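Researcher: Here's a chain I'd like modeled. Treat it as a single chain, no partners, no ligands.
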Amino acid sequence: MLAFLAVGLVRITGLGLFWWSGAIFLFGILPPFDTLIGKDSGNPPDSIIAALEQDRYYRWCTYLFLPMQLASLTLACAIWSGGDLSALDSLGLAVTVGIIGGVGINTAHELGHESEKVERWLSKLTHAQTGYGHFFVEHNRGHHVRVATPEDPASSRLGESFWAFLPRTVLGSLASAWEIESGRLRRKGARVLSVHNDILNAWAISAVLYGILLAVFGPSILPWLFIQAIVGFTLLEVVNYLEHYGLARQKRPDGRYEPSPRATPGTPITSRPTYCCITCSATPITTPTRRAATRPCAPSTRRRNCRRAMAR
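Model: Modeled as a single isolated chain. Structure tokens:
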């Protein structure tokens, strides 16, 4: 509702910012309200975890985002193809739609944690807008295991600027995802270049989506599709940069990385709180030395189980 009112105001006042409403809401309106509301670091007690996992309300929240995401992208393509917008307004619309796509990656992260096949395919469909389908593989099978280590492309290093981190994480995540998925298929005795490759079939969904949009609305929308995709996955990497900046798990004499410390009562809050992954808003774990301040997600693929593991 607040976003709707803000968009209405800029439209009425003729400031020409209507098409930039996504950026206005995300970077101009949401942060002050987030600061005023404050931080909720609580976790649900173990006694209600089972009930929460059976509550389909949360699942339907993720289900319903997908049609709205695709509808917004289709509407944007229709507007771009009409040729009525200036280049600046078209860019603003691309940024707004790209922000929705970036939030879509977060939704896909939720769906990708589920064990049901239909939800995992919905996760790939949600990734289709940004073409970031390899995140489906790398985040769950790579980042959760290697978080806060030099081998994790999604963990930003101490002193590393965002613009140095961005190409490293984009290319590194792609290479990591391909290594993980090709290794999985080889261990199963399957061909890497096949329909069973989770990266290739995720990219195929993106290709089909873009192909349909180009066939319906024409090639003039292609530059804006690329721009919104870049905005979408860059928004994800901004979150990764901020959440994992400077974290480092130390190597033990046996060559393995030390486990992340558990949260204990009375731990001094002397550094930025971080979490195991983008949406696991569990109790923050902080350490004054900036050593391992995250706890990788539990083997379970369910988000609430991940939160439960961190709360222990």
